[in-house]
Amino acid sequence: MATTSASEALVGLPGVRKRVFWALGLGAFGLAFSLTTTAAYLPPLLHRFTSSGGLIGVILGAEGIFALTISPVIGPWSDGFHTPLGRRRPFMLVAVFPMGFCLLLMPFMPNLWTTVVIVMSFFFAYYLYETPYRGLYPDVLPPQTFGRSQSVQHIQRGIAIGIALVGGGLLFKVWRPAPFVLAAPSGEAEIFLATQLVDEARHAAFFDRFMAEVMALDGEDIRGRLAEMEQLMLPAWRTVFDDHLRETARRLLARPDDLDLFVEGIVTYHVVIEGVLAMTGQHQILKYLEAHDIYPGFCRGFSLVEQDEHRHIAFGVRFLKDACDAEPRYRAVIERKIAELVPVACHVFVPPGTEDPGDFMSYDYHSSEIYGFAYRALKRRMAVVGVEVPPAEELMPGPIAAPAIPHGAAAVAAQEMAPAP
Ligand SMILES: [Fe+2]
Ligand SMILES: [Fe+2]
Fold it and tell me: Which domains are present in the chain?
C-alpha cells in the first residue's frame, strides 16, 4: 500500500487531480437522479393504470429485493474480475445503457404490465451498476482522499436530486395541458395535435392582448385576466368547458389508451366546441365588426385564428371518419355525444338576460340565423363522417332559419352552379 508523507497531505494531495473526484462523482449523480425520478414520478404514472395503492407500493418496494439479491453476487464477483478495463468498469458499462434506456421508456408504457417489466429491468440495471461503482473508489483513489472524494460525490448527488425533483415536476406540468397529445392513437394524430397545441397557445396570447389593451381588465397577467373573464362566464360555458372538456381531459390522462374516450373527446373539442360554437361565433362577430368598420387590427388577427380553427376542425372530421371506417360502432358513440352535448352547448350563444332562447338578437343576427348556421355546419361535417345528426328541433334551443338568399346576378350564378337536389 502506498504511504503518504505529512508534506504531501499539507500541499493538497498532488497525486490525485480534482477532476478525478468530479468524474467519479458522475456515477453518484446518475444513480441519485434516476432513483429520485423513479421514486417521485412512478406512483402518479402507475395511477394511470391502477387505483390500488398497495399494488403501487409492491412495485416500488421490489427495489429492495434487487438490492438484497444482486449486490451480494455482483460485489464479490467484481472483486475477482480482472480485465484490461479494470475490475469494476465492465459491470458498469453493461448496466449504464439499459438503466438510461429503461428510465426514458418508463413514462411511455401503454399498460401496467409493460411498465412493471421496464421498472424491474431498471432496478436490475441499477444494482448491477451501483455495487461495482462503490468498489471503484478504493480501486482508483488512495485511502487518504476518501473523505474528500465523498464530499464531492455528495455535492453531485444533491444537485442530481434537485434537478430530478424540479425538472421532473416541470415536465409533469408541461404534460398536463396536453392530454389529447398524450392519448393520440397514432403518430400522425400526435403530430397534428402537437401543432394544434401551439396554435391554441398563440390564440390565447392574441385574445389576452385584446383583454389587456382593449377591454382593460385589471388582472396583472394572462392568468389573472383569464380568472377575471371566468367570473363572467354563463352556466352553459361551465357545462361545456368544465364538465365536459376538462372532465374528458382528466379521464384521458388516467386512461390514455381508451379509444372510445378519445373519440368522445374529439367530438367535444373539435366538433362541438370548435365546429359548432367557435366557428359560428367567429363568423358572426367578424361579419359584425366588418359591417360596422371597427377594430380592424382585431379583425385581421381573428381571421387568422379562424383559419387555424378550420384546420383543427378538418383534422377532427378526418379523424372521426377514419375511426368510423375502421370500426362502424363509433358512429353510435359520436351520435350519442352530439345528442347529449349540442343542446346544452348552444346556450352559449344566448346573451345574458335573454328571456326566450329561441328568439333574440346578437351582433345584428337573429337567433334563428345563428342556430341555422351552426346546425348546417354540423350536419355537413357529420355527413362526411357518415353520422346522421338528430333534427334541428332536438339539437337547437330555438327554430333555425334557412340560409340567406343571395340577390341579383350572384343569385342566378349560384343557382346555376348549384348541384341538382
Ligand atoms: Fe383556438
Ligand atoms: Fe382550435
Answer: 16-175 (1.20.1250.20), 179-405 (1.10.620.20)
